[in-house]
Amino acid sequence: MEALVTLVGAAVVIIILRDVFHTLWHPTRHGGLSRIVMTALWRLSAHGIPGRRAKGLAGPLGMVCVVALWACGVALGWAVVYWPHMPEAFVFSGELEPTEHSRPVDALYISLVIVATLGLGDIAPAEGWLRIVAPLESLVGFALLTATVSWVLGVFPALARRRALALHICHLRRAGPTAGHLDSDAGAVLLDGLAAEFARVTVDFVQYPESYYFHDGHGDTSLALTVGYAAELAERARRAPHPGARLSATALDAALDDLAAVLDERFLRTGENRQTVLAAYARDHGGR
């Protein structure tokens, strides 16, 4: 029975570490704890809680919830590993009575002390294998803290790139480039730059899918509400006599196709063409 409970605790730890791995270093479309939490909060903010502010909180609150679940899962998993072996596999300070401090809550206390690397020493592992396992938990706790910081430092620059692209498109819309502007070397360079920016944003959605669940508002920084104008520019430039402009328009079209494919595969799942996918993206982020 002790071995079975220990294996259950180890399985919980492995599941949490697998989720951290697939969230930060090997993102996949198959879900996981982070994906479930972020999607649930996004849908709740969109359909269950009225108001723009609620939708704006979905992404940040989702990240906080995911990190909290990771930390709690690791601590609970290791506590389940320790509990069946208490008190005989641990040494207690003189002020503590071992039989009175061998409850599940004491196992959780030991786990929290170790994962937080506090090193209080009032209860410490005595058996050889536990003296190896406990430092491993400390390493996992340190890695989890580092992973959380890395996650934040990765997601927010991705958001900045997405919002900067949206603002760039808005500036172009205000400038109102004509067919003559697009039918030139400058027009080709302009479209090339947009294609490169869309490629970066597409990679961001693949590498940091959680960034999708951050609402960009209803202004000029919302890519969901401005991407349609970029498609319009590509359509106009494809008919331009300038060969460079036509080539750049084709590249921008391909970049928009890639963006729509990633959005549909990972988030929207409409199974439709690019125009329908981008319209669904706009609706999902508050557009009409």
What is shown here, in short?
With 288 residues, the protein is an all-alpha fold. It has helices spanning 2-24, 33-48, 52-82, 104-115, 128-175, 179-182, 185-207, 223-237, 243-268, 274-284; strands at 90-92, 123-125. It folds into 2 domains: 2-147, no CATH class; 156-284, no CATH class.
Describe the structure.
Keywords: Membrane, Transmembrane, Transmembrane helix. Residues 96-150 form the Potassium channel domain. The protein has a two-stranded antiparallel sheet. It has 288 residues and is mostly helical. The model has no long low-confidence stretch (mean pLDDT 90). It folds into two domains: 2-147, no CATH class; 156-284, no CATH class. It is elongated and about 85 Å long. The termini are far apart. It contains ten helices and two strands. It has helices spanning 2-24, 33-48, 52-82, 104-115, 128-175, 179-182, 185-207, 223-237, 243-268, 274-284, and strands at residues 90-92, 123-125. Helices cover 73% and strands 2% of the residues.
Order of helices and strands: HHHEHEHHHHHH
Helix content: over 70%
Percentage of β-strand residues = under 5%
- Can you count the helices? 10
Global structural class:
mainly alpha
Number of separate strands: 2
- Biggest sheet architecture: 2 strands, antiparallel
Q: Taking strands numbered 1, 2, ... along the chain, how are they ordered across the largest sheet?
A: 1-2
Tell me the count of domains. 2
Mean pLDDT equals 90
Radius of gyration using CA atoms only? 26 Å
User: Which ranges are low-confidence, i.e. pLDDT below 50, for 5 or more consecutive residues?
Assistant: none
Distance between the termini: 58 Å
Q: Could you say which overall geometry the principal axes of the C-alpha atoms support?
A: elongated
Organism: Streptomyces dysideae
Protein name: Ion transport 2 domain protein
Pfam families: Ion_trans_2 (PF07885)
Keywords: Membrane, Transmembrane, Transmembrane helix
